[in-house]
Every structure is written in structure tokens, then in C-alpha cells.
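Action item from last week, closing it out:
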Amino acid sequence: MAYLIGVLILVAVLLVSIALHEMGHLVPAKKFGVRVSQYMVGFGPTLWSRTRGETEYGVKAIPLGGYVRLVGMYPTPRAVGDPPVDGWFARVAADARDASAEEIRPGEEHRAFYLLSTPRKIVTMLGGPVMNLVLAGLLLAIAYSAIGVPGPTTALDTVSQCVVPAEATTQECAPGYAAAPGAAAGLLPGDDIVSFAGTEVESWDQLAELIRGTTTTVPVVVERAGERLELEVTPVVADRPVYDELGNPVVGEDGRPQTVAVGFLGVTPAFATQRASLLEVPGLVVERTWLTMKAVSTLPAQAWDIMRATATGQPRDTSSIVGLVGVGRFAGEIASAQGVDNGLRAAGLLEMLAALNLSLFVFNLIPLPPLDGGHVAAALWEGAKRQVARLRGAPRPRPSDSARLVPLAYAVFVLLGGIGVMLIWADLVNPVAIG
């Protein structure tokens, strides 16, 4: 039952995300006088709709996106000089112009979207992605500031008795392994590290960096059973695995995990629920957005790797991108996780849903039609041409014939649809291992 609830929460938040995204386009378009004939959440057959004013609001059967129909999206044939129709590409562009022109009511030519100034076009197009960014920030604020998420503390959970080589297949101590410096110095599980090498310790990340950069004997102050003790430790130089920003081991060209020689103490932190300040949330949003941008930038390569791994029966990388089937599975498994309290489950779901909205934000900024970023790029191109003409004292140029990008939009749509179908197939037959 908990699994189903997690999936239903995902669907509900996905619908809200789509609705807010489209609302981000709708509100500025109406504000700037553009007639918006439709506001739809979903694709396919209409399940429900109502007309309010001049706009039809509705919900469709397939919750994989949405749209607002902005009247006059493309310039009319006359506005771009009635270009000749020769060839398939020109015919597709001409059909798009004609269909757009047919939606413009007599006497409302001034309300066409293509007549907006460049800044207003950009505001209208960016309104959708920005709504996803704001929603992601809200979800992260609830997860990190209101609920809290598990994080490492300065208290010790375990103290290793030996230094296990990086190439070892288990973490068990074996004869011949050197004694771990932490245990040799008298550190015990439950000790709270107060200072290391004379530096006051405020976080586990700070302590880890201090340990990695130290290979000489240094003092360490711990709090144990309400008392402070000063010990001396001598970290050893050990080869430790290198991890990427997502926490995955970095593998070299030979297929072996890469290692680096660093100071090693042999201790691990205890985890506890931690609440972040609201002032930290913008930094979290920036960090997650940057990671999402890096992931989206490698989408073609990742899609190829996923297809190859699935076709050859190889396991997928744990950092692999997933489709809606994979995201739904994650939501269900987070909601039904055993031994985890409801607060942490909720925080996990919220963090995943924030990541989904950040993906929508970043993905829609790609400067290719039919994505929002493609319309922004077209508006910027038109604005640049106008500014150049103004600086040269030349007449104002015609509106950019953005309908000529429609064949490219079809190609991008087919490509993205193919990747989406491939991800569904991969998520079903070769899912990412989690937990």
C-alpha cells in the first residue's frame, strides 16, 4: 500500500508541476495581451474541460506534459513576405504559418504572440521553466528545513581496527593489515570530535578534509561521556577510492577504480537528521541545478550507454538517467522503505520530486524547438537583428520566420520521444539497482 501511495504522490506532484509550468506561460501571455485559446494539462483525449472567458482550461488523458495555445505563435505569411513554397521543408513551414494565422480573429491581429517585443517573448517563454525552479526550491526547503534529512555528524559511528587496502574485496581485517591510526590512538565509537590538529571541528566534511591532508602526529580533542579528552593521532597514507560528485567510484580506462593517496584515520561518522537554515536553500538549489545541467549535457552519451547495456545484458550505472517508469519505482520504494520513519520517507520523496522539477527546468532551457529554450533562442535572434538594424539606421526588419524551425521541432520531438520509449524499455527490463 505504501508503494502505491508513493507512486500516486509522484503522479499528483507531476501534474501540479506541469500545471504550474503552463501557468508560468499563461499568466505573462495574458498580461501582455496575447489571446490564449487553450490551457491543457496532459496530451491525448480530453478528460475534462471548461471555458472561462476566451480560454479553454482542461485535463487530458496522458500526463506526460501540457501546453498553452498562444494565438499567432508564428508570423503570418504576409508578415514574412510570402516566401515561396518549394520543397517539403518549405511546405511544413507554410502549413505552420497558415494554421497560426487562422487562429487570429479579425480585428485582433495586434494580439498575436509574434508581435510581442523580444523581452516579452522571453518572459513568456521562461515563465514555465522558472515555475519549475521555484517549485523545486520550495520542495527542497520543506525537505531540508522543515523535515530534515540524514547527514553525517562529528560523532563517530565506527572505528576500524586495521587499514584495509583499497583493492580488498571485503572490509574485514586480515593478518598483515596495519593497525588503524584511530583505534591505535584510543578513539571509540560514540566519541564526538571537538577539534583536530588545533582546528575546531564544525562538520564531518571539514573533519574529513583535515584528516585527508594530515600525515603527521596531531592532537585531537573528543567529547566522551560528557568529558573532554585530548588524544594524539598519526594518520597513515593510504590509497582510497576517488568518487565523483554523485558519490560513484571513478573508474579508469582499465576498468579499475581510481585511487588517491591521502591521510587515513579509519573512522566513520554517525548519521542524524539535520535541518538546514532557509538561507542555505538557495545554495542547495544552485548546486542541484548545476548537477542537473551536467547530467542533461551528457544525455546523448548516457542514452547510448543505457541502450547498449540493456541490449547486452549488462547492469546499468547507478547514476544512470531514468524515465518515468524508473522515477515511479523510486517513489514507490522510498515510500515503502523498511526501518525508516515517515519523516525521512517524506523528505526523500520531496528531494526526488525537487530533482524532477529541476530536470524540467534545465531540459526546457535547451535552445532547440519545440522546447521553451528554442523559442527563447528565436526571440533573441530576432531581437539581435532589430538592434543591428537600429544601430545601422536601417529600416526595421521583418519578424523572424520562426515557422522555418518547425521541421527541426518535429525532428527533436521524434528524437526525444525515441529516448523516452527507450528509457521505459530499459527501466522495465534493466532497472537501476538502488538501496
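Closing note: The longest helix spans residues 2-31.
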